[in-house]
Amino acid sequence: MSALEPSVSVRFAGDGEAEPPVVVKESVARQFKYFQRVLHGEFQEGQQRQICIEGITRATGLVVLQRELDIVKSLTKDNLLDAMIALDYLQFETYKIFTPRSSQSLLWRIHRQMVLEGWLRDHQLANSLLDSFSRYAFIARFIHQHNDIRTGLLPALLKKPDITQAQWRRCEGGNDDTDDAIRAAISLAGSLVDELSHDRVIDMSHQVARFITDATGSSSLAAALAAAFETDVGDGTAAAARTAESGDDAT
Which of 57, 76, 103 represents a domain boundary (last residue)? Predict the structure, then answer.
């Protein structure tokens, strides 16, 4: 029965003439909004359903143009970032679950793989994810939906207050606070405040205080924590204030 399932032939911009198209079953293609034009009948009956994808390489396409479970099995620390960018480009339907009898999304499965394998201990990968979430909604959504990921990113985040600051300013400027990049930035700051409030980063309290003031673009720690509280980045803001202010003020 599966052999009779309709499919789409996919080529990539960098393909050589001798490379055959990748055949993607319709059930797989339906995971991506990118393929809607092909699947919704803009091709005449009997016409071959073929599409050329410009934005990703064949190697990455072979990783992501699969069922959810197979995507996760194909991920490595080295191909993860390219795969996530490709999933964003192809507009994977992150709010749907395509695996029968499963309650876990692809985002959750990727998060679990990363945590189990300890991939965020790789500083280059952590930095790359932080550098990318403002441009790719898939990565931003991945960050703001998983506390374990945000916690793993905190050591790298402390060195990049400008990344959070840019999104913070967008939020203060009236941009939609349901925007995935804004939500990722606010949730990252919230995770940092929560870690500080529970004394889990007390040895870095001055560094954290400096980060919070820089990230919010505030003139003082008190103003930064007030901004964090108003933006609802975490329940531990008041406790974080006491912890951070027990030493010298960051400013």
Answer: 103
Mean pLDDT by 10 residues, the chain (251 residues): 75 88 93 85 58 93 97 98 98 91 93 96 96 95 95 88 72 64 86 69 57 65 59 43 42 39
Q: Domain for residue 15, yes or no?
A: yes
Tell whether 197 and 134 lie within a shared domain.
yes
Structural domain containing residue 158: 118-251
Q: How far apart (Å, rounded) are the C-alpha atoms in residues 27 and 210?
A: 49
Tell me the C-alpha distance between 199 and 194, whole Å. Answer: 9
pTM for the full predicted model: 0.79
For residues 9 and 49, the answer to whether their CB atoms sit within 8 Å is yes
pLDDT digits (tens, 9 = 90+) for 181-214: 888 988 888 887 777 666 555 444 566 666 667 6
Name the domain boundary from 36, 69, 103: 103
* Residue 111 resides in a domain: no
